[in-house]
Amino acid sequence: xxxxxxxxxxxxxxxxxxxxxxxxxxxxxxxxxxxxxxxxxxxxxxxxxxxxxxxxxxxxxxxxxxxxxxxxxxxxxxxxxxxxxxxxxxxxxxxxxxxxxxxxxxxxxxxxxxxxxxxxxxxxxxxxxxxxxxxxxxxxxxxxxxxxxxxxxxxxxxxxxxxxxxxxxxxxxxxxxxxxxxxxxxxxxxxxxxxxxxxxxxxxxxxxxxxxxxxxxxxxxxxxxxxxxxxxxxxxxxxxxxxxxxxxxxxxxxxxxxxxxxxxxxxxxxxxxxxxxxxxxxxxxxxxxxxxxxxxxxxxxxxxxxxxxxxxxxxxxxxxxxxxxxxxxxxxxxxxxxxxxxxxxxxxxxxxxxxxxxxxxxxxxxxxxxxxxxxxxxxxxxxxxxxxxxxxxxx
Length: 395
What we know:
Number of helices: 13
Strand content: 15-25%
């Protein structure tokens, strides 16, 4: 292996400043004995070497001092160069060698995921703002995915998130997609601190993403018995809960995990710090008004005017201090978060990307609220309890 390739089993994989917190956390989980897919990381030094090979350093140096219009133009130029131009040979050769070695050791296709130096840090996880690619089984797909991950650092959504945290791309080096994108209501299983199942709320899972090796994932309708059946039985939930507690010990605090399950068992794919807030006692007056329950995002209590949105083109109606009421909790709504007092969505769950971004910003959110857009009157005063998972409105 060269300086650009860092196997996740190596001690050097703990260096988050070199391979990013996401990859470093995954390496730490594996080294602690937790089941992970393994793999390797293409370090931030490879990204910098590619920038130099493409002659982009002068362009990037102008980015920080440029005005908004110029920054947009420069980011497009940088993104296109990273995505369309070849990977430099000193990076490509060891990348392909490492990938071929991994393929020889495993039977299935690969996944390529971003691990930016600014991603999955406490208070700034950038959930859903970068790229992941599944079903990689040939060199062309691998190379395209790597270039797309580099280019994603310069997309509009990623730059907006960085602006929120005072960061700049110039300074930085799942199939749970239906859940992450907020398209379905996932199961919600509550465990006690001792690891026993206390409650199971079956979600509304009318479709799933089906992996097609060598092609994009496809949405697939599921049978009625799967819609109403929990994805995990009690024993599996307890096992996963124990893994999460061990991951908390590894990371050093509350975490949210991403996992997969196959014939062999569980694999932990990701663990990142989780923002947790205490329950806020609401004003008693709100207890007298009608309410709906859903999945809590985990932070805050907020009130404001309800703005019911059925299409993204209506988002211009949302003013500072409003509560957004919508159907799908899509990451595309992330640019609205800085100005709202809360979010209520009919679909999605506490593990969606938008919920992670809401926790990061301290915005109360309740997801999976059945018929929210039809039952909550547009323009009414609403209160969103992002810890208890309840939204109430003044009729």
